Amino acid sequence: MKLLMPYITAGITPSWTSYLPAFAAAGASYIEVGLPFSDPTLDGATIQEATAAALARGATLDRIFADLSEISVPVPLIASTYANLVIRSGAAAFGARLRAAGFTALIVPDLPLEESAEVAEHIDLVLLASPATPDARLTEIGRRSKHFVYGVTVMGTTGERTELAASASSLATRLKARTSLPVLLGFGISTPPQAAEAAQLADGVVVGAAVMRRILDGATPAEAAEFVGSLRSAM
Question: Which of 32, 67, 160, 203 is catalytic?
């Protein structure tokens, strides 16, 4: 079965954790949980809006972890955030808190590969690769990543797009030739047909902005999960 990882910004609503089991029931293989950071430089307008809204609601790591302690989710949770939050806490302490909160792994898009070893000692890292990544570096990313490799299909920020990037095919081919891990494609995958196309190229997809756009527009957990289910059905 192809892998599907929807994204949610932690703290986006008072009952944000209720989306997690709903996504799992709709067919999510993993769920990416964005830990809000005040300067999300790699995120596009939708995720930036969600991040700002969560921070305005008072989202903090303490509150997010407390929220997660009250629920059980039957699929792995993958945290994502920026290196500043990891460095501020210290890799050991941050990794320990993530594990205690129920996270399986961590994505840190602005953490250089050369500086990732200390963090990887304390929590599994899912590493990112882009169309501009040289082949030798793709091999090293595949060696160091855990669970899967996240293939970023476009050079730019996250966000919804009208079609799958042309670079997705070559990136998936290059990655799959250099790692035995599953390859998931993300950035810009916005519709069920795009998810189906990406899943044919790789082992699965990551869908973020399209999910968050619906939540920002008021979608309930059931309504957002219906969209996740449509992605699963298309794949």
Answer: 32
State the pLDDT at residue 160: 46
Domain extent at residue 204: 3-234
Q: What is the mean pLDDT of residues 172-179?
A: 95
pTM exceeding the 0.90 threshold for the entire prediction: yes
User: Strand pairing partners for 124?
Assistant: 105
Q: How far apart are CA 131 and CA 137, in angstroms?
A: 11
Q: If you ran DSSP here, which 8-state letter would residue 206 be given?
A: E
> Domain holding 196: CATH number?
3.20.20.70
Q: Which amino acid is at 204?
A: G
How many domains does the chain contain in total?
1
72 vs 17: CA distance, rounded Å = 10
49 catalytic? Reply is no
Mark whether 223 is an active-site residue: no
Q: Is residue 207 packed enough to be buried (19+ CB in 10 Å), middle (13-18) or exposed (0-12)?
A: buried
Q: Which of 39, 43, 140, 223 is catalytic?
A: 43
d(CA 229, CA 222): 10
